[in-house]
Design goal:
Layout (H helix, E strand, L loop, with lengths): L9 E4 L10 E8 L2 E8 L2 E8 L3 E3 L10
């Protein structure tokens, strides 16, 4: 878990009791310890609020590092 979540960061839900456990999304908003995460897939988009302790920052995929 990162103590400093910011909009645009890719995150994964790590709370096994949450229905979104294992889902990955993007931080949209951070307010008073609550984090709004956007999930999208196919033809749907969903914004869900989480406690920051339930999220973990993941490394972005699809971009290659320059050597």
């Amino acid at each position: 878990m990162s103590s400093e979540l910011r909009p645009g960061m890719p995150v994964k839900v790590v709370n096994p009791r949450d229905q979104y456990y294992g889902f990955e999304g993007q931080v949209q908003k951070v307010v008073d310890g609550a984090v709004g995460v956007i999930f999208s897939g196919g033809n749907w988009i969903k914004l869900v609020r989480f406690a920051s302790k339930d999220l973990e920052v993941v490394e972005q995929r699809g971009k290659r590092r320059k050597k």
